[in-house]
Write a structure and sequence with these properties.
The chain is α+β, with helices and mostly antiparallel strands. Helix content is 15%, strand content 32%. The chain has helices at 44-56, 88-92, 103-117, 143-146, 202-207, 306-311, and strands at residues 5-6, 17-19, 22-26, 30-35, 38-43, 63-65, 70-74, 78-83, 97-102, 219-221, 224-234, 238-240, 245-249, 253-260, 266-273, 277-280, 284-301. It binds P-hydroxybenzoic acid (PHB).
Length: 322
């Protein structure tokens, strides 16, 4: 971590970090961010939960808004870090600020900050009902939790090479999914197809997820990625996608707050109940609220040419043109 600019610990025990014109400081409750034209303050809780996902997802698809002011835009190799860029008031006052970094360079600083600012008893991936609070003076660290990466299959979970590895010992059934049946489908492939035909219970698989708002990739077919996840409380980022994003609500309920991607102006509230399917357009930002732990299938099109085709008007921002 030689390239990371960090100070000695402050009075609360946390280091300050800087990269480019941005400076980050944490105290007992807050993350304080400054840049050449302004400053911002966020709850350490919101900041660390968003930072955790930005790091673990390699800056994700499109825009990761930590809140209405601060975030990143992924250009897949390099990344913009911004303040006020997707906020109408900041734009009008010309107070918005963006800097571009090679992705590994920004990631190094983010990883170091996440590790230093996360105390031993806080897990930023966990539901707030299943972890301690992030607040207070620095007390230990939780490196194994903050370096956890999302599970990514190379083909489909269950086929050789991508075995399902969730057991009672490693992944006990979550308290909210105690009623989910655990039986697995029986599969009888024709001789010669044993390595290609497989099946597993996705509900049983998800019932053992120990994290929230962290899609794992369970199947890949060309650019089609099935990324199911279990959700509780609030999606810690406001995601501004650069492509259409499909949601299939597998259980319970999530309310989505949908806004214009660039200005933040409200566009819709979408309540999804078990069985509902939605295609989020590519020109919005969204944040989900899950009152009870729920199962959601996020279906992503990972085609690397999509953002450019959409920005040139060659592909639609909508899944369907009515
Ligand atoms: C999304 O932004 O589309 C998203 C991210 C994480 C989730 C669910 C949805 O867990």
């Amino acid at each position: 971590m030689t390239d990371v600019k960090a100070t000695k610990p402050n009075l609360q025990g946390y280091k300050d970090f800087s990269i480019g014109g941005f400076h980050f400081r944490r105290d007992e409750f807050f993350a304080h961010i400054t840049w050449p034209t302004g400053k911002h303050v966020m709850s350490a809780d919101t900041f660390l939960r968003a930072l955790q996902r930005d790091v673990a997802w390699d800056f994700f698809y499109g825009t990761v808004n930590f809140d209405h002011v601060f975030g990143t835009v992924n250009h897949y190799g390099n990344v913009d870090m911004f303040a006020g860029r997707f906020n109408d008031a900041y734009r009008k006052a010309e107070l918005d600020h963006t800097e571009n970094f090679e992705s590994p360079v920004l990631k190094q600083t983010f990883e170091a900050m996440l590790d230093d600012w996360t105390n031993a008893s806080f897990d930023p991936f966990a539901s707030p009902a299943e972890t301690d609070k992030p607040f207070g003076q620095k007390k230990g660290s939780n490196t194994s939790a903050v370096t956890r990466r999302r599970v990514a299959a190379a083909r489909m979970v269950g086929v050789p090479g991508d075995e399902k590895i969730r057991t009672d010992k490693t992944h006990p059934i979550n308290r909210m999914f105690a009623d989910v049946p655990q039986d697995e489908p029986e599969v009888y492939p024709e001789p010669g197809f044993e390595k290609d035909v497989a099946a597993f219970s996705l509900f049983a698989y998800l019932s053992r997820s120990d994290v929230t708002w962290n899609p794992s990739v369970v199947s890949i077919c060309k650019a089609s990625l099935y990324c199911p996840t279990t959700e509780e409380y609030i999606l810690p980022i406001v995601h501004g996608n650069d492509r259409v994003d499909w949601f299939i609500q597998l259980s319970d309920e999530i309310v989505w707050d949908v806004q214009d991607r660039d200005s933040g102006a409200p566009r819709a509230k979408v309540t999804m109940k078990a069985g509902d399917v939605a295609a989020m357009p590519a020109d919005i930002r969204h944040q989900g609220y899950s009152p009870k732990r729920s199962m959601l299938l996020v279906w992503e099109n990972a085609d690397p040419g999509l953002p450019e085709r959409i920005s040139k008007g060659l592909a639609s921002v909508h899944a369907v043109q009515f």
